[in-house]
Specification:
Layout: H1 4-10, H2 22-27, E1 33-37, E2 40-43, E3 48-51, H3 54-57, H4 66-78, H5 91-103, E4 109-115, H6 118-135, E5 143-147, H7 156-161, E6 178-181, H8 196-214, E7 219-224, H9 240-250, E8 254-258, E9 282-285, E10 297-302, H10 303-310, H11 328-344, H12 346-367, E11 371-375, E12 382-389, E13 394-395, H13 398-410, E14 413-414, E15 416-418, E16 421-424, H14 432-448
Parallel strand pairs: 3-14, 5-6, 5-7, 7-8, 8-9
Antiparallel strand pairs: 1-2, 2-3, 4-10, 9-10, 11-12, 12-13, 12-16, 15-16
The protein binds pyridoxal-5'-phosphate (PLP).
Pyridoxal-5'-phosphate binds next to α6.
């Protein structure tokens, strides 16, 4: 590897980074992370900090899981690649699908389609939802409904159902036939409703109204995150997803639960939908499926959907897939990661440490007026909304948010910024002492604001 001077000199010169202005990256080069162990990352200057981001909501097992690393290395020796397009498969792919289905059987999932990541998984669900209706003799059902503030990746389908215009406007026009409902976001919503149960009812009613306006026979699916992640960790009232499920059922609309963040233990259970007692028709997955060690995603199908495809003859051909679908090395990573996830039962620690982090941030809010809202309480997903004025809820300016971020980093924790929110999703293996490091670092960051 080239030396540190070379790396610093060329940082962001040739490489364009996702979600960043290339010139801005050249002027303020990104941190070069050179190593990691446990839940701690090390940068090129040797600074070690607790990773409160978990890579990007994905390193659920922390950075040192030897079983997953060994499985990947061994599979590379055995069979580094072979296609899974019709006509061939590989042993880890068969085993990985078995393991994923078993984990989500309780959610009603019966079939697994592997992809290369979350955006691919969302795209797969959106496309197969249309095909499902076509197979059932309702080809006019092509539209999608989603939530404002929802994040569903960056492919054209995902961007079209995305509920944050930051990820949309540069790429418009997007897919026609996508409509958005208000998010279950009590801190700010068009109804000025602060009661979460009331807000859930108002959004379910807005869903009904939109269906009446569009015509139920034109709508393929509702896609939603059970807890909204990138949009600021928005936790709905427990009645919200069941209400949306009920409306979907009454109108023949499929429910896609986007579990790219919430799957595999992050919320304190294996899926987010399970918290709300909802069985979706499809689930999109990624991230925790390999703890981020290898790029893999999955689209899961319920028995109801699977039956229509499997009895659909030629119409049920899945004319969709990726070169790396069911990649043997990725599949080996899935098998090892799920086995470790079950062995450690990461749900338990996620719930306990999530509570500690959430309550710790709530205590910080009593001390720092810059904290407008604290959200979380379901596993290791915590959001902090920053404001310059609590009365008017004026969003904190970008420079101050960046200052908090850097101060917290220098005080020992990497947190993530999303607009004027701080988003946290540390590895599910984090200890009590390491959560305290994050809280102390945030305290220092807020004090500097
Ligand atoms: C809920 C959700 N869906 C989809 C995606 C897209 O996943 P990827 O970045 O792996 O394409 C993300 C990424 O954060 C996500 O949070």
């Amino acid at each position: 590897m080239k030396d540190a001077n070379f790396l610093k000199e060329n940082n962001a010169r040739q490489l364009w980074h996702p979600m960043a202005q290339p010139r801005e990256m050249q002027e303020h080069p990104p941190k070069i992370i050179t190593g990691a162990d446990g839940v701690t990352i090390t940068d090129i200057d040797g600074r070690r900090v607790v990773d409160a981001v978990g890579g990007l909501w994905c390193v659920n097992l922390g950075y040192s899981n030897q079983a997953v690393k060994d499985a990947i290395a061994a599979q590379l020796q055995e069979l580094p690649y072979y296609s899974a397009f019709a006509g061939s498969t590989n042993p880890p792919a068969i085993e990985a699908a078995y393991a994923v289905q078993a984990m989500f059987a309780e959610d009603g999932m019966e079939r697994v389609f592997f992809t290369s990541g979350g955006s691919d998984s969302v795209e797969t669900c959106l496309r197969l939802a249309r095909q499902y209706h076509r197979l059932r003799g309702e080809p006019t059902r092509t539209k999608y409904i989603s939530l404002k503030k929802g994040y569903h990746g960056t492919h054209f389908g995902g961007a079209s159902v995305n509920g944050n215009n930051r990820f949309r406007i540069n790429y418009e026009p997007l897919l026609p036939g996508c409509f958005h409902l208000p998010a279950p976001y009590t801190y700010r919503n068009p109804f000025n409703e602060t009661d979460p149960a009331r807000l859930a009812q108002l959004i379910a009613q807005a869903f009904e109204d939109e269906i009446a306006f569009q015509g139920a026979d034109t709508i393929a699916a509702l896609i939603m995150e059970p807890i909204l992640g990138a949009g600021g960790v928005i936790v709905p009232h427990e009645s919200f997803m069941p209400l949306m499920r009920e409306v979907c059922d009454r109108h023949g609309i499929l429910l896609i639960s986007d579990e790219v963040i919430t799957g595999f233990g992050r919320t304190g259970d294996w899926s987010g939908a399970r918290h709300w007692g909802v069985k979706p028709d499809m689930m999109s997955m990624a991230k925790g499926i390999t703890s981020g060690y290898f790029p893999v995603g999955a689209a899961l199908m319920s028995g109801k959907v699977a039956e229509v495809f499997e009895s659909g003859g030629a119409g049920g051909v899945i004319s969709h897939g990726y070169t790396y679908s069911a990649h043997p090395v990725g599949a080996a990573a899935v098998v090892a990661c799920l086995s470790e996830t079950l062995r450690l039962d990461t749900r338990v620690n996620a719930a306990a440490r999530g509570k500690q982090l959430f309550e710790g941030v709530q205590r910080l809010a009593e001390k720092h007026a810059v904290i407008g809202d604290v959200r979380g309480g379901h596993g290791l997903m915590t959001g902090i909304e920053l404001v310059s004025d609590r009365e008017t809820k004026t969003m904190l300016d970008t420079a101050s948010v960046a200052h908090i971020h850097q101060t917290a980093y220098e005080a020992g924790a990497m947190v993530r910024i999303g607009g004027h929110n701080i988003l946290m999703s540390p590895p599910l293996t984090i200890t009590e002492a390491e959560v305290n490091v994050i809280l102390d670092a945030l305290d220092a960051g807020f004090a500097a604001a």
